[in-house]
């Protein structure tokens, strides 16, 4: 093939190999190439064989590092995008992203789009969602600790409500830990009042109303007041009022605004009955999988969200009342008789709660009243 002596010098052989190698390296060439050419090809192919696994390993490591660099969590919530709790959650996830350097990405699924309100705690407990926002009183039948901040007239203002939270917090953390979860932060709702079209002078005027019950606590109030409790969650409230399923309920001005209650009910009695809390809870196993720096970022973002959320609740509480008034709702201060009657209902519920909660319950109430 080469048409001459087979005794090529080394330089000539290398030049011929370099010229030929890019085009092809077929078996015929190996048979026909003289001198040192076969060994040159063998060395080059040997180098390629050694390099390919290293390159593959590098790509695999790069892909693995990229995949592990970012963790994604889902955060189900029950309230619409316009609600101040949801606004606070959106700021919280931005803080988590910034403080973690992009390592932890959390997606908020508001308005019960991923799980309905009563299902969120179970979803977090089972790690179907790694983090979630719950209304504590929704789980009052599960354990007394979840019912505490829904007891009427135990803590009626923001200062009192925050003190109650401090007394409650260690016991709440202990309960959640026993269920494989941890408490990240809480935010109070504005004070609760009564929405109804009926003139309410005394508690007896509540009898017969179709009362929206969104938790065991609100259902118990209806029972004691002689109203008819109907279970309706926040995402379903507007439809329930439009179809006449409910004609009254007890909640904050915030809920009244978000659900456009003013289109169906024209009176809100500002009883300042209690300030229930939303809690953001985290699956403990999911938390433990985060590196220490990301765990710290999550906690720091949670502390910021709690401080911001309590302030926002107070600010928005007044704003919501003004908006209700603008939309034709009458804000009414309850009569002394109505307030007294509701307070008596609260006393019954507090006593029942203490009996059910036992020594822990008594310790919480005593600690709160000493603050």
Tell me what portion of residues adopts beta-strand conformation.
5-15%
Question: What is the share of helical residues?
Answer: 40-55%
User: CATH homologous superfamily name of the largest domain?
Assistant: Bacterial extracellular solute-binding protein, family 7
Structural class, from secondary structure content? Answer: alpha/beta
Number of domains: 2
- Tell me the strand order in the biggest sheet: 7-6-8-5-9-11
- Cα distance, first to last residue? 102 Å
Mean pLDDT: 87
Q: Identify the overall geometry.
A: globular
User: Biggest β-sheet, characterized?
Assistant: 6 strands, mixed
User: Unreliable stretches, pLDDT < 50, 5 or more residues?
Assistant: 1-14, 19-37, 62-67
> How are helices and strands ordered from N to C?
HHHEHEHEHEEEHEHEHEEHHEH
Query: What is the total tally of β strands?
Result: 11
Radius of gyration in whole Å, from Cα?
Answer: 33 Å
Going by CATH, the architecture of the largest domain would be: 3-Layer(aba) Sandwich
Detailed description of the structure:
The chain contains twelve helices and eleven strands. It has helices at residues 10-20, 27-32, 37-69, 84-99, 120-125, 158-178, 216-225, 237-242, 253-258, 284-288, 292-326, 336-370, and strands at residues 71-76, 104-109, 131-135, 181-188, 193-196, 210-213, 228-231, 248-251, 267-269, 277-283, 330-332. Helix content is 51%, strand content 15%. The chain starts with 9 loop residues before the first helix and ends with a helix. The protein is globular and about 100 Å long. Helix 7 (216-225) links the parallel strand 6 (210-213) and strand 7. It has 371 residues and is of the alpha/beta class. It has two domains: 10-63, no CATH class; 70-194 and 268-370, 3-Layer(aba) Sandwich (D-Maltodextrin-Binding Protein, domain 2), CATH 3.40.190. Strands 7-6-8-5-9-11 form a six-stranded mixed sheet. Strands 3-10-4 form a three-stranded antiparallel sheet. The longest helix has 35 residues, at 292-326. Mean pLDDT is 87; it is low at 1-14, 19-37 and 62-67. 40% of the residues are buried.
């Amino acid at each position: 093939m080469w048409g001459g002596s087979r005794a090529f010098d080394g330089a000539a052989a290398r030049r011929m190999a370099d010229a030929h190698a890019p085009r092809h390296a077929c078996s015929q060439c190996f048979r026909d190439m003289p001198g040192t050419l076969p060994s040159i090809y063998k060395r080059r192919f040997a180098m390629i064989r050694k390099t390919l696994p290293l390159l593959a390993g590098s790509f695999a490591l790069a892909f693995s590092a990229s995949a592990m660099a970012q963790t994604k969590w889902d955060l189900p919530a029950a309230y619409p995008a316009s609600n101040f709790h949801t606004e606070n959650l959106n700021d919280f996830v931005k803080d988590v992203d910034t403080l973690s350097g992009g390592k932890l990405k959390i997606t908020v699924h508001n308005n019960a789009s991923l799980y309905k309100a009563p299902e969120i705690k179970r979803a977090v407990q089972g790690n179907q969602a790694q983090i979630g926002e719950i209304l504590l009183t929704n789980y009052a039948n599960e354990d007394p600790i979840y019912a505490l901040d829904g007891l009427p007239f135990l803590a009626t203002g923001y200062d009192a409500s925050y003190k109650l939270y401090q007394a409650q917090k260690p016991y709440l953390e202990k309960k959640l830990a026993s269920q494989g979860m941890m408490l990240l932060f809480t935010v109070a709702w504005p004070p609760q009042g009564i929405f109804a079209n009926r003139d309410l002078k005394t508690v007896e005027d509540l009898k017969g109303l179709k009362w929206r019950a969104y938790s065991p606590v609100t259902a118990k109030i209806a029972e004691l007041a002689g109203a008819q409790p109907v279970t309706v969650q926040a995402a379903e409230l507007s439809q329930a009022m439009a179809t006449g399923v409910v004609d009254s309920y007890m909640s904050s001005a915030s809920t009244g605004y978000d659900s456009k209650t003013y289109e169906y009910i024209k009176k809100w009695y500002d009883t300042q009955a209690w300030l229930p809390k939303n809690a953001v809870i985290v699956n403990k196993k999911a938390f433990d999988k985060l590196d220490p720096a990301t765990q710290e970022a999550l906690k720091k973002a949670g502390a910021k969200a709690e401080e911001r959320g309590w302030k926002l609740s107070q600010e928005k509480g007044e704003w919501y009342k003004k908006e209700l008034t603008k939309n034709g709702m009458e804000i009414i201060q309850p009569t002394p008789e109505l307030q007294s009657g509701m307070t008596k209902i609260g006393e019954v519920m507090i006593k029942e709660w203490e009996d059910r909660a036992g020594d822990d319950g008594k310790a919480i109430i005593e600690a709160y009243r000493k603050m």
